């Protein structure tokens, strides 16, 4: 009988010990209520409570992802859009999260939907589509302020989609296509313009270079002709001087001069050019010139053309 009593005591002791020992996970906090009143908060690890007298409530401290269901919202320019969002929040005070509100997840969803309607109702459709970051920040600030008294921290809010009606999306698609076509046409026109400008500049430079080349060629030809004429004239002048000096050195008499004059007249008479005859007095004066010309011709000096 005594042994059965001892076994019963041991059995109840084990049951009592099992009810007294509680394990709190690293991401949890434990709230201890003693006789229906809050007593203390348990940290992660092994904790001992008093069975029947005390009760343990575990609170998850990990970040939660709350899905805000899609809802219809009318924008400032009277366009109805479908909007949904995601809330990332985390419990920072387990006491307030458990005792200040019954279901903070449900409350956060309803609060997000209300503020989404207020925020998008003040924006036009185009502005709402291009201002998601602004909407996210406004919602986060409002939700964080509201949930702070619940011991919940809203880390961020993300708008998943903003879907306008089908006819609006079709019109936006056509508008975007028109804008792309416009930009493409502008870029193509700019390319053609730049190509024509470049082509004209090339033609201009080519014409300038060609004109400069022709001018230099003409200059070189003129310089060559000038040099040639100067050289020929200088040679003729030297030949005349040499002939004149040779005549004076030879000291010809009147008979020789008369003979050379007659030979010159004979040559002139045989030519096809017009003839002009001078009196004997003038002929005497020109005899020296005729003789000089004949001597030049005999020496192979070309005659000067009038």
Architecture overview:
This protein is rod-shaped. The chain folds into four domains: 19-60, no CATH class; 64-164, Tetrahydropterin Synthase, Chain A, CATH 3.30.479; 166-240; 252-306, no CATH class. It has eight helices and eight strands; from the N terminus they run H-E-E-E-E-E-E-E-H-H-H-H-E-H-H-H. A three-stranded antiparallel sheet has the order 3-2-5. It has a three-stranded antiparallel sheet with strand order 6-7-8. With 306 residues, it is of the alpha+beta class. The chain starts with a helix and ends in an 8-residue tail after the last helix. A hairpin with a 2-residue loop joins strand 2 and strand 3 (37-42).
Task: Summarize it.
With 306 residues, the protein is α+β, with helices and mostly antiparallel strands.
**Helix amount:** 55-70%
- Overall mean confidence score, pLDDT: 81
Shape: rod-shaped
Terminal-residue CA separation: 172 Å
Features:
three-stranded antiparallel beta sheet, alpha+beta, 306 residues, 4 domains, 8 helices, Tetrahydropterin Synthase, Chain A
Question: How would you summarize the topology of this molecule?
Answer:
Blueprint lengths: L1 H19 E4 L3 E7 L2 E6 L2 E4 L5 E7 L3 E11 L5 E12 L2 H6 L4 H18 L3 H6 L1 H16 L4 E12 L2 H85 L3 H17 L9 H19 L8
Antiparallel strand pairs: 1-4, 2-3, 2-5, 6-7, 7-8
Helix pairs in contact: 3-5, 7-8
């Amino acid at each position: 009988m005594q042994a059965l009593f001892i076994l019963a005591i041991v059995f109840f002791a084990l049951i009592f010990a099992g009810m007294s020992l509680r394990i709190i996970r690293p991401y949890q906090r434990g709230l201890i209520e003693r006789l229906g009143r809050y007593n203390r908060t348990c940290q992660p690890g092994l904790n001992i409570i008093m069975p029947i007298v005390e009760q343990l409530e575990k609170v998850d401290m990990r970040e939660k992802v709350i899905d805000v269901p899609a809802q219809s919202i009318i924008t400032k320019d009277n366009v109805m859009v479908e909007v949904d969002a995601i809330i990332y929040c985390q419990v920072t005070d387990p006491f307030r999260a458990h005792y200040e509100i019954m279901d903070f997840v449900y409350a956060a969803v309803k609060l997000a939907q209300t503020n989404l309607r207020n925020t998008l109702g003040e924006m036009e459709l185009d502005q709402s589509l291009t201002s998601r970051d602004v909407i996210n920040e406004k919602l986060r600030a409002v939700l964080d302020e509201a949930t702070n008294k619940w011991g919940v921290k809203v880390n961020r809010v993300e708008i998943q989609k903003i879907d306008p009606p089908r006819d609006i999306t079709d019109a936006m698609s056509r508008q975007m296509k028109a804008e792309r076509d416009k930009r493409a046409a502008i870029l193509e026109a700019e390319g053609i313009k730049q190509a024509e400008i470049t082509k004209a500049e090339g033609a201009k430079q080519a014409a300038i270079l060609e004109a400069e080349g022709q001018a230099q060629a003409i200059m070189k030809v003129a310089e060559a002709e000038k040099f040639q004429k100067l050289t020929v004239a200088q040679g003729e002048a030297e030949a005349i001087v040499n002939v004149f000096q040779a005549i004076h050195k030879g000291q010809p008499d009147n008979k020789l001069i008369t003979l050379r004059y007659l030979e010159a007249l004979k040559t002139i008479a045989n030519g096809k050019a017009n003839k002009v005859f001078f009196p004997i007095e003038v002929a005497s004066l020109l005899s020296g010139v005729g003789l000089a010309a004949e001597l030049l011709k005999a020496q192979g000096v070309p005659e000067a053309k009038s």
